[in-house]
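FIELD: query
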Amino acid sequence: MKRTHLILVVALTFACSSPAFAQRSHPGGGPPAGHGASRASGSSMGEANKGGAMSSSNMSHASPNDVLSHNTAIAGKIKTLTGEDAQSACSGFKNLGQCVAAAHVAKNLDIPGGFDALKAKVTGTGSMSLGKAIEQLSPNANAKSETKKANKQVDDDMKESSS
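FIELD: result
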């Protein structure tokens, strides 16, 4: 009888823990995205967030106010790119990645009207994608490659500011 109970307990434990293991799995064998070597050994993501550090993938998709209140490095980068306080520069954007990408595009292409003109197209009434805004404000630019370039710059900025 005890043996049957032991087998049942082991089977139930395994069955209940399987979904937890499935959530942690990922292709490629390395750490899941956003959980790379920049994180202190042995710390959990929750602990890292309590200290004010967010992974770069979390930062670019989080609301601008959430990230800027914790990350002065990226706030400083935005101020350098736009000439504006980061909080006000990024107001209206869905996430921080969009704001930083627009800031880079405005600087890279020397957009007429600067960052504010690009921001108005991307966040204003009848808002459009960054690519469409580039096409309208800088018709001679290759919107697709400029968007790709800006997104690469965003990734670099986020990695740099989280280390």
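FIELD: remark
DSSP finds ten helices and no strands in the chain.
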